[in-house]
Amino acid sequence: ETHFQVLSWHDALQTLLQYWKRAQPARSFFYVSGRSSMEAAFLVQLLARQWGTNNVNNCSYYCHQASGVGLTQSLGSGTSTVTLGDLQKTDLVVLVGANPASNHPRLMTVLARLRRRGGKVVVINPLQEIGLQRFSVPSDIRSLLFGSEIANLYLQPHCGGDLALLKAAAARLWQQGKADVEFLQRYCNHFAEFKRDLEEADVAGLLEKAGIASAELDAFCECLAASQRTVFAWAMGITHQQHGVQNVRALANLALLRGMVGKPGAGLLPIRGHSNVQGVGTVGVVPKLKPKMAEALLEHLNVKVPDTPGLDTFSCMEAAARGEIDFAVLVGGNLYAANPDLKWAAAALGQIEFTAFLSTTLN
User: Fold this and answer.
1) Which residues, including other chains, have CB under 8 Å from residue 221's CB and lie 6 or more apart?
2) Residue of 199, 227, 332, 338 with fewest CB within 10 Å of its CB?
3) Please, what sign has the CA dihedral across residues 121, 75, 204, 207?
4) How far apart are CA 277 and CA 38, in angstroms?
5) CA-closest candidate to residue 170, choices 193, 201, 214
């Protein structure tokens, strides 16, 4: 059919089964949005693996996959190191590559309250976002009527200049004697190499690459050095780069340099876009399950995870573009709109013979 039709549940399920029965596991994939419940996500990945494919993925492969990889490499875990309670205790938030005024408005309440109690906010963003300079929180009558100042310091590096800026900040802090050396020696690996790298850093060259003036770097480092409890928060502006993983590791290194991991009111916060993106990954919506989970599925549910490697989200889209995918199940979200090249995405998804999209709204 070329136009939308309303089907009964019976007809819809029969159509789904008709195409599913003739599909091959290796030429199929299952995608779950972070808006899905953990129970639904678990059942989707279980069904896919029982059928015979590891082509199971979620929306984080388009947003915070770089965060998961970078944090795992730096800290051993790909998750945030802070809780919501830590945001009430921090005295400094460094917000990098994110615009919560548009995309995470609940966070703006936290930032406004931080400023009100005397804390500081440093924003690092190539674009001057008005909402990150001043914002009106609708649920706060004082903020609603008079507005709330947000950024104490607003740095605008070149696009792609974040890595150079973060490295320059770490080197400048080390030169100023503002590193938590005891923390680094006690809790961190490769301290000698890290120290040597900072001492040999060409700060002037890094600032040129970053597009930041030396005075601006000094102001940033003053905020970091004065803080007792710093939260480093970031979003797609950091991860949607060719060196997204390195950006995240640079943020982690800066936090470790100041001893801002593992204590109340301080840590690393990848700002998630969907309410349950962490949850769907935890319950198995990933191409490669952790060995313990695979063993548990076999032991308790008699489901053997396929031996063939699975494809992540973008790899599935690339396979679809090559005509190698015949069947797809998409649960929530909007995989088409999540791709940066919509023309390419439309052509790729159009190559799939049958796509089942489960959502509460037309999309």
Assistant:
1) 169, 172, 173, 176, 178
2) 199
3) negative
4) 9
5) 201
Contacts of 39 (CB under 8 A, 6+ apart): none
pLDDT for the residue numbered 123: 97
169-225 tens-digit pLDDT:
999 999 999 999 999 999 999 999 999 999 999 999 999 999 999 999 999 999 999
To 10 degrees, what angle do helices 214-226 and 162-175 make?
A: 60
Q: Which amino acid is at 197?
A: D
Instruction: Using the structure block, give the residue that is written with the tokens 């070149």.
Output: 158
65: amino acid identity, one letter: Q
**pLDDT, tens digit, for every residue of 253-299?**
999 999 999 999 999 999 976 667 778 888 999 999 999 999 999 99
- Describe the chain by its helix, strand, coil percentages, rounded to 5: 50, 10, 35
Q: Which two tokens stand for residue 334?
A: 């909007």
CA–CA distance, 254 with 232 (Å, rounded to integer): 9
Cα angle value 170/173/179 (rounded, 5°): 95
Locate tokens 């690996």: which residue?
Answer: 189
Give the Å distances, CA to CA, from 115 to 87, 121, 134, 179, 294: 12, 7, 11, 25, 46
> Facing residues of 358 across strands?
331
Q: H or E element: which one contains 182?
A: helix 181-187
Cβ 267 vs Cβ 273: under 8 Å: no
CA 97 distance to own-chain centroid: 11
Residue 71 above 70 pLDDT?
A: yes
Structural domains of the chain, with CATH: 9-62+276-358 (3.40.50.740), 65-270 (3.40.228.10)
Q: Give residue-wise pLDDT tens across range 294-335.
A: 999 999 999 999 999 999 999 999 999 999 999 999 998 888
**Lookup result for tokens 């548990």:** 296
Instruction: Give the rounded percent of residues in the chain with a pLDDT score beyond 70.
Output: 99
